[in-house]
Amino acid sequence: MKCVIVGTHLRGVVKTHNLAFEECDPLQAVFAKHSCPNILRAHSRLLADIMVHFPTSQEEVTLSVTPARVCFRSYTEEDTAWFFQADFPRTMVTEIQLNPDEFDYFQVGVDSEVTFCLRELRGLLAFSEATSVPVSIHFDMPGKPVAFSVEDAVLEASFILATLSDIRSEAASQEPARCSRVQESSKTRVDKPEKPSIDEDSTAEATASKKPRWNGASGAPANPWAERELRGDPTAPHRDSAGTGGAATGEAGGRAVQGAESPYHKFHSLFFGAVSFKEKDAISRSFHSLATASDTEEDSGQTQSSQVLQ
Amino acid sequence: MRFRAKIVDLACLNHFSRVINTIAKLAKTCTLRLTVNKLYFILSDRVANGGVSMWCELCQGNFFDEFQMEGVAADNNEIYLELMPDNLSRALKTAQSAKAVKIKLTNKYSPCLKVAVELPSLSRSSRIVTHDIPVKVIPRRLWSDFKEPSVPDFEVSIYLPLLKTMKSIVERMKNLSNCIVIEANLSGEMNLKIETDVVSVTTHFKDLGNPPWASEDECQSSARGRDLQSMAEARIDIKKLQQLLAGQQVNPTKALCNIISKRIVHFILLHEDVSLQYFIPALA
C-alpha cells in the first residue's frame, strides 16, 4: 500500500514522496479513562519542567498523589536489594514535590502511587509541547494502567501505560520486570485476535506468570483490570498474584487487548483516535476508518478500522 | 556526625556548580572531606585511578550562606565521604534558578547527601526537588590515605599558557597519539610534543614565565642551580591532560605546572576561592 504526497514548489519543482505502509489490525486497550478516580491536567510545559530533573537514563518514575500534594519520584529496583551490595548501595534518587495548585485540573479520589515507564512518556511530552496542548493524566490504584492524553481540535491521543502492581501483595518471584519475553508471545496472539481458544488462554497464562510485577497492559495480552471492569466488578482487587491475569483475555471478546507494549525503549503505545469498548457493551456509535486506501474502495467502512473517540 | 549547608545566592550557586562540574570531569568517584572551614575533593593516587591524584580545596565561606558541621569526634572534627561527583553535578544542574539549595547528610536507609532545591513556581508554595546522593562514610582509620600531597621536588616550575589554547592543541593532538610529552625549562619555554611512526608534532610556547617559589632548604633543591635552558620532560597519558583542560570552565587566576623528569607532572590551578592540584604520573 502506498501513500503518495505530491508537492509543487517554487519554480515548478515537483517533489513526490512515496510512503509505503502496511495495513494491520489496530489494537485497542480496554480502558475507560472516565472511571479513574484520579485526574490531573497540566500544560505539557509543566510536565517537561518536572521531567528535566530526572536523568535521561531514568527508566521508571513513581507518581504519588494525595489531596494535598503531588510527587514524582525516580523508581529504582535496587531499593530492596541494596543491603547486599558491597559497593555503592544505591543510585541517586530524585523526587519532585508539587502543590496541587500548579495543575489546571486536580482531582484525587483515592491516594495512590503509580509507577510507570518514564522513557515512553518523554516521547509523548515532546509531541505535546509541539502541539502545545494540556496533558491529562488518568489513573487509579497501582497495577491499573495510567493514561496520558492530549486533545485538541484536530486530534486526540491516548497513551496508556502499565503500572507496577503493589509488590506486597504478590507471590514472591525472582523475575526481573522486563517485558521483552512477553513481547514475543503477545505478537503471536496478535495473529489470532478473532478466536480465543483454550490454547491461547493457557499461553497467556503461562506468559503472565513470567511477569509477576507488571499488570495491566504490559505487553501480555492479559488485561485483568479491564476484564474485571467489563464483568461489572470494579471493586475486585486488581492486585494479582502471578498467573491469574492470564485467563482474562480469552473472555474479553474478539479483540486482542493490548496496552503498552514494551521493550520500554520502543514507542509502542500511542493510540490516535479511539479507545475501544468490548463489542457486546458498545453503545451504538458510528465506526469509520480514519484512513482509506484510495485504490481499494471496497475497504472503506470495515470493522477492522479504528473507532472514533467519543 | 552531622552536616547541613545552604546556598541562597545564585552567583555562589553557579560558582559552586562549576567547581563540581570540573571535579566530575576528573573523577568518577572521589572523597569529599568536610572540615569547619573548608571542603576538599580528593582523589588519591591508587592504581585504579591510573596513578592520577587530585586535591581540590574550597573555603566554605565563599559559597555557603549557612554551614554547620559536626565531625566524627571532638578531636577529629571532620567528615570523610566517598561519592560520585557526577551525581552532585546533576543535582545542581537544574538548580540554576533556585531560591535556595540545602545540602544535608542523612542516613535514612543508607548514608546520603540530600540536596534539596527550592524552585520558584506559579503556585503559592515553591516546587521542591530533592536528590538523594548515596555516599559512603570513610572510617577514621583510612583517613591517612587522603593526606594533602606535598609539592614534589620539581626540576622546573612554569606558568601554563592560556588554558583555552592549550586545550584546543591537546585535543587535536589526542587524535594522533595516546601520549604527549610536556617539556619546559626555567626560561619560560614549554613544548608539547607528540611522536608517532608517521608524524611528530611539536607546539612551542615561550615567555610563559616561571613562578618564584620561596626557597626552602628541603624542597626545590633540584631547581636551584639548574641550567636555565635545560628542559625537564615527562611523557604522560594525553587523555588525562585533556580531561583536566576540558574540565576547566573558568579561566584560573594562576595556572602552573611542576615537572620532575620522567616521573610526574604536577598541575596547580588557582582561582579566587578554589585551588586545584592535579598529578599526572609519567608513563614508563
UniProtKB/TrEMBL annotation, chain A:
Reactions catalysed: Exonucleolytic cleavage in the 3'- to 5'-direction to yield nucleoside 5'-phosphates
InterPro entries: Rad9/Ddc1
One GO CC annotation: checkpoint clamp complex
Gene3D superfamilies tied to this protein: 3.70.10.10
One of the GO biological process terms: mitotic intra-S DNA damage checkpoint signaling
GO molecular function: double-stranded DNA 3'-5' DNA exonuclease activity
Species for this entry: Callipepla squamata
Cellular location(s): Nucleus
Annotated function: Component of the 9-1-1 cell-cycle checkpoint response complex that plays a major role in DNA repair. The 9-1-1 complex is recruited to DNA lesion upon damage by the RAD17-replication factor C (RFC) clamp loader complex. Acts then as a sliding clamp platform on DNA for several proteins involved in long-patch base excision repair (LP-BER).
Biased composition (Basic and acidic residues): 184-198, 226-241
Name of protein: Cell cycle checkpoint control protein RAD9A
E.C. numbers: 3.1.11.2
Keywords noted in UniProt: DNA damage, Exonuclease, Hydrolase, Nuclease, Nucleus, Phosphoprotein
Automatic annotation (TrEMBL), chain B:
GO biological process: double-strand break repair via homologous recombination; meiotic DNA integrity checkpoint signaling; mitotic DNA replication checkpoint signaling; mitotic intra-S DNA damage checkpoint signaling; nucleotide-excision repair; response to radiation; telomere maintenance
InterPro entries found in the cross-reference section: DNA_clamp_sf, HUS1, HUS1/Mec3
Cellular compartments per GO CC: checkpoint clamp complex; cytosol; nucleolus; site of double-strand break
Subcellular location: Cytoplasm, Cytosol; Nucleus
Keyword tags: Cytoplasm, DNA damage, Nucleus
Protein family: Belongs to the HUS1 family.
Stated role: Component of the 9-1-1 cell-cycle checkpoint response complex that plays a major role in DNA repair. The 9-1-1 complex is recruited to DNA lesion upon damage by the RAD17-replication factor C (RFC) clamp loader complex. Acts then as a sliding clamp platform on DNA for several proteins involved in long-patch base excision repair (LP-BER).
Known partners and oligomeric status: Component of the toroidal 9-1-1 (RAD9-RAD1-HUS1) complex, composed of RAD9A, RAD1 and HUS1. The 9-1-1 complex associates with LIG1, POLB, FEN1, RAD17, HDAC1, RPA1 and RPA2. The 9-1-1 complex associates with the RAD17-RFC complex. HUS1 interacts with POLB, HDAC1, FEN1, PCNA and RAD9B. HUS1 does not interact with RAD17. Interacts with DNAJC7.
UniProt protein name: Checkpoint protein
